[in-house]
Amino acid sequence: MNNLLNVSPSPHQQSPETTRKLMYGVVTALAPALAASVYFFGMGAIIVTLTSVLSCVAVEYLIQKFILKTKPSVTDGSAVVTGLLLAFNVPSNLPVYIIIIGAIISIGVAKMTFGGLGSNPFNPALVGRVFLLISFPVQMTSWPVPSGFKTGYLDAVTGATPLGTMSEGIRNGETVAALMEKVPSHMQLFYGQMGGSMGEIAALALIIGGIYMIWRKIITWHIPVSVLLTVAIFTGILWFADPTKFADPLFHLLTGGIMLGAIYMATDYVTSPMTPKGMIIYGIGIGVITVLIRTWGAYPEGVSFAILIMNAFVPLLNMYIKPARFGKEVKHG
Amino acid sequence: MSSIVLLTIIMLSALGLLSAVILYFVAQKFKVVEDPRIDIVTEVLPGVNCGGCGYTGCRAFAEALVKSTSFEGLNCPVGGADTMGKAAAILGRQALAVEPKVAVVRCNGSPANAARTSFYDGAVNCRVAHSLYGGTTGCQYGCLGCGDCVVACKFDAMYMDPVTELPVILDDKCVACGACVKACPRNIIELRKRNKKDRKIFVSCVNKDKGGPARKACKVACIGCGKCVKVCPYDAITMVDKLAFIDSYKCKLCRKCVTECPTAAILEIGFPIKEAKPAEPAEAETN
Amino acid sequence: MFKTFPKGGIHPPENKLTAGKPIVVLPAPLQVTVPVSQHIGAPATPMVEKGAAVKAGQVIAQAKGFVSANIHSPVSGKVSKIDTVVDTTGYKQTAIVIDVEGDEWVETIDRSKTLVRDVTMTREQIIERCQQCGLVGMGGATFPTHIKMTVPAGKKCDLLIINGVECEPYLTSDHRLMLEKGAEVLTGASIIMRALGVDSAVVGIEANKPDAIAHLTELAKGFKGVTVQSLKVKYPQGGEKQLIKACTGREVPSGGLPVDVGVVVQNVGTALAVYEAVQKNKPLMERVVTVTGRSVKNPGNFQVRIGTPVTALIEAAGGLPDDTGKVINGGPMMGKALAITDVPVTKGTSGIIMFPAESSKRAEVLPCIRCGKCSSACAMGLEPWLISVVSEKAMWDKAEQEKITDCMECGACAYTCPAKRPLLDYIRLGKSTVIRMARERISK
Predict the structure, then answer these.
(1) Is the N-terminal amide bond of A121 cis, ω within 30° of 0?
(2) What residue ranges do the domains of chain A occupy?
(3) A26, A44, B134, C97 — which has fewest CB within 10 A?
(4) How does residue C256 score in pLDDT terms, banded at 50, 70 and 90?
(5) B206 or A174, which is more confident
(6) Model confidence, pTM
(7) Which domains are assigned to chain C?
(8) Residue A217: partners with Cβ closer than 8 Å, 6 or more residues away
(9) B118 vs A4: CB contact, 8 Å cut-off?
(10) Interface pTM, i.e. ipTM
């Protein structure tokens, strides 16, 4: 025989699913939301997205090439996903240099220092976002007002997010009913007609992407559903107790980063639990912490912090929440 | 302003002091009484925790040394006589003379010598390959080339030669801890007596097959012909399961067997080149 | 109507290319090589000398101990040598090489094709006959059948399951057997029922074999207590524990045997072999092998003598395709890759699959992204990512704690891994090490 046979242990077949396909599946799922952002925020959304993705990919490549001296693995698509998610989590008028700093923190600090893909304990994009939020509070909280496609970038008209309006109003003693007049209607919120981070506004587009990911078996329903359900139930109880002081559950679900967070950020493979039971506990944790921060915290929005806090519990959840084993154990005499 | 600075300093000092007092009492409370010599002996040990002594780490070995009545059977292969001498001095005991050893790879199945018959595509791990099948050559005793031994070596004394696909031991770095010996699923690596100038004579083969199949699988296999046994003037060579073995403690490095071996399975390393028999570069590399 | 097991499982492409190919009986080759160890347990001891004349069906190697099986000469001829040859395990083993001369069988074997339905033997006679005839599990595990047929003291068995699942992709030998020798298989099932002392038997067949389900359902009407259960297509349904769960809902305890829940599982091929042994006095010397592959010219199901070289089978299927990169003995999920094709067919060889070079190499291994797909694919509810890593790092205690010994090595985890990590390679290593260490602990 001229060709030597390959010998390897079984199985001899591998599924067509690969890390790369999964990552680009997430990118595809984010496309509707990206389209919505471009529709509402115009040029700014494009600039922010491109800058973020390119700088994330570049940072990963440069670190692997020159610092770690390993084979660059940027083609696996994980840096692209991080870049997209980072872009989705910042205002669409964020100056380019701040985005680049965010990318360096996301990839350089939150991902590569822990050993790259698969080893980071915290969601890289969220670490970048929170770093920027704390370092550049003014730029990170001046939200452009959505107004059809426009070519302006840095000079966009800015305003508060619905959650911000609500939170500040309640603190100033206004009633929820009065504040509801000041924020967009629920239908507008559903489409994405509101101020906010670039990718978090269009609930409809995010849900479409989420359904696609569940259909493609990239994610399971456990995390998104448990997060959203927890938020709905928790805010529902509060709302039921005092509707003048607390906004209704639907408002909470449609505003802020809860959709983006629940469907795309919390479900990040690396930083989420691996068993369905663990996923549900993790999702409930995120939901509860989010509502706590939104209702009683200093920030009007708390999804990022909630996810990062729950990320820290993932190793613990993985250790203690085990899948149900097949067959009860028997003692051998 | 200055009062704030002063206050800060006082506060911090007070806190520090308080913590120190608490720590002191906690440390007293949970103190573990231990032979202080264990710490002293641990100090003189190499501290690499290689396990070459047979204990889990240097500290465990130090404990064993302190508890022992004589150094019989206790040896740190890494530190050698020097370290053992120091430990003996601390404990007031007699250091035993230990002959230095060195690890030797007893396989010469490079692609040039042993033709490859298949391509291994599983996890790069010798144990996985070993449990799977006979290996990429016709020889089911030889080196699998996945480098478990290199991973096991804590002293950077080994590397995989990309040409011969065999591990190479760097004599000057090898401390004979035996980690590679344990790591090898095929028992190819042996700890042998370290001779002067790192000279070596050994059968570089572990194939127990009959002569024909062994030779077919590998050009430099030991075919068990027994010529070396007959020619050895010191009874250093034994023949077990069609495989010659040279006892490194009996061998006087006369090299008679080397010239006698029909398959060049016996390697001589570190000797001046004889004009009659030019040293084969492929063989020299494998050491 | 269609049942299945609830936990885990995957759906690899079925590729049952040879499902419509009737079994072709190949003539005995010029020379057969019969390894003395074709089963789990102690190798048999050769009973013939070089130069001895043997008849087909004659014992040439005697079982050594209880967990062992007799080896019979599959052909008539002369023993040319007793040597070590590489067999399907990839290691050299003692084997008896026989030069074929004529085709003379031992006289006591009934070579007629007539179906003998009436079972006259007692339980002990059946078990003894199976032991004499060297029967082993034909599904691939090759565990001696007579042991499985003996219900251990203190245990109660109430159901026999005949495994016609054949969940491995490509393989179709059991499928063809059910279609072509359905009555024999069911008779075999009633013989095993008598040996076990049970009143009912279920034949589990996956829904991708509707013809076999229809055929056997029809035939089963004539067999008391035998029913056919169709099952949803899902790998690894052919695993004993999964099959029992799917058919009965009973869960075999961790570390236990099927008989702990009152069930014994036998493969379709084994049932046929039991029929032939008990009713025809024919020892296990032939088996059906599926020879297949995407680029194989003439894939098919062949009935060959044990000891036939795999090369002869490949020739019968149209030769080794030029683009072959891997030859597998068994199914693609659990089979063993062959380093050389010059190895004999043994009692456990269910298929020979030739993979083209481009689909035979494993993909590049990437870091684990902790997606958890392996955990959800595991039919035993294990965490393959975890037990694989602890095995790689030699943390055997942890591996044992995480129930590594429950793994049945089905390969669903490694199949499903998007990062293409060699999960099962390390799990298998860990499992064997943990089992060895446990044995050492017990023997101490």
Answers:
(1) no
(2) 19-140, 162-320
(3) C97
(4) confident
(5) B206
(6) 0.88
(7) 123-280 (3.40.50.11540), 373-443 (no CATH)
(8) none
(9) yes
(10) 0.88
